[in-house]
Design a protein that fits this description.
With 384 residues, this protein is mainly α. 68% of the residues lie in helices and 0% in strands. Helix 2 crosses helix 12, helix 2 runs parallel beside helix 13 and helix 7 runs antiparallel to helix 8. The mean pLDDT is 84.
């Protein structure tokens, strides 16, 4: 379906040429910015609304329930009803809370979630800004979420909220390190930080996930992304069964909805970047490029939601140990494997790299295997 993509690009250029005939050259930059910003601002909240509907339907199916089915056909208008409810609910602020921090955190946390969409290539020629440092831009913005979660917890003046914020800082900083290192093999092979260049390097069926280092990098990048957006089983900052609701305990109404919006938009953007880096992005036969991108992205979102209906929450020691003892050494080893794959002749590169990867995974497993306790032998008083 390259003809459809080419028609889209040609139509876009024709529209810009037509506008440039009536407008000064300097105004074209502002018009382009306004169009891109408007599309992102509309797309982000709409995506969030219907991801909530999709998750409620999916988890309901897993738990043998119907999910939303009252408002509109198949419950499709339920997100709109929820949005109206959030807008009309009372905004309650604790008496001793830091009013400024309590207000600022949910407002600012949405901004990075929206800005990340600007470097996501939704299709051929469908990226708001093709930055030469697109991946760095994504990593930098995604890491700022930690700050505003902690600001929200501190400003609430609630011990449960503060505990959730401290957990969030420990978790997200720990998982950011393997997340950054998991992308290094892609940058090493492509030689560019641009998200568009990364997709173009996977033309045809040369997706990076079909290489040994690509499989390892994909798994690490996706799992660390799930941890970054506080999704199950890495949802310790929102441990409802342990710390009431974590960092957003003292939030209600639209402020709570903004945290919810940021989480779901981040889940979509993380899935989009993972699809871009390892699954070929918008590359694929027959269908339009944007269709391939959304199929891959929503498949990863589906897996995230499947996790929620399947896995229990990790303990904090398990969560931190998994980041530092498993993911970090695996990402460091994967950089070496990618360099080895890049410098060996095909098809030996895949075989040798796979053997090295299996050996390293085996070593990591044996180094972290759980200790099986010895069988206890009880000695009763009457046996003396």
């Amino acid at each position: 379906m390259e003809t459809i993509d080419q028609a889209f690009v040609l139509g876009k250029r024709a529209a810009l040429n037509w506008m440039s005939a009536f407008l000064p050259d300097w105004t074209m930059v502002f018009v382009s910015i306004i169009i891109s910003a408007t599309a992102i601002v509309i797309f982000g909240p709409v995506t969030m609304m219907y991801l909530t509907w999709f998750e409620r339907k999916l988890v309901g199916r897993i738990q043998n329930r119907f999910g939303p089915n009252r408002v509109g056909p198949w419950g499709l208008l339920q997100p709109i009803a929820d949005g109206i409810k959030m807008l009309t609910k009372e905004d309650i602020v604790p008496e001793h809370a830091d009013k400024f921090a309590h207000f600022l955190a949910p407002v600012v946390i949405v901004i990075p979630a929206l800005l990340i969409f600007s470097v996501v290539p939704f299709g051929r020629g469908m990226v708001a800004v093709d930055l030469s440092i697109g991946i760095l831009f994504f990593l930098a913005l995604s890491s700022t979420t930690t700050i505003w979660i902690f600001v929200a917890s501190w400003g609430s003046r609630n011990k449960f909220s503060l505990l959730g914020g401290m957990r969030s800082v420990a978790q997200m900083i720990s998982y950011e390190i393997p997340m950054v290192l998991s992308v290094v093999p892609v940058l090493l092979v492509v030689g560019s930080f641009s998200t568009v260049s990364i997709v173009e390097a996977q033309s045809g069926w040369n997706w990076f996930i079909f290489t040994p280092w690509g499989i390892a990098g994909f798994l690490v990048f996706f799992l660390t992304g799930v941890a970054e957006v506080n999704r199950t089983p890495f949802d310790l900052p929102e441990g409802e069964s342990e710390i009431v609701a974590g960092f957003h305990t003292e939030y209600s109404g639209m402020k709570f909805a903004l945290f919810y919006m940021a989480e779901f938009m981040n889940a979509f953007s993380i899935s989009g970047i993972v699809a871009t880096a390892y699954l070929g992005g918008w590359q694929g036969p027959w269908l339009p490029s944007w269709a391939w991108f959304f199929i891959k992205t929503y498949a990863l979102v589906f897996v995230m939601m499947w996790f929620r209906g399947t896995f229990p929450r990790l303990r904090v020691d398990q969560l931190m140990g998994f980041a530092w003892k498993v993911l970090l050494p695996l990402t460091l080893a994967n950089i070496f494997i990618a360099a080895l794959w890049l410098n060996l002749e095909s098809p030996k590169n895949n075989l040798i790299s796979a053997l090295v990867l299996v050996a390293i995974v085996t070593i990591i497993y044996w180094a972290n295997r759980p200790e099986v306790p010895k069988k206890r032998i009880y000695r009763y008083a009457y046996e003396d």
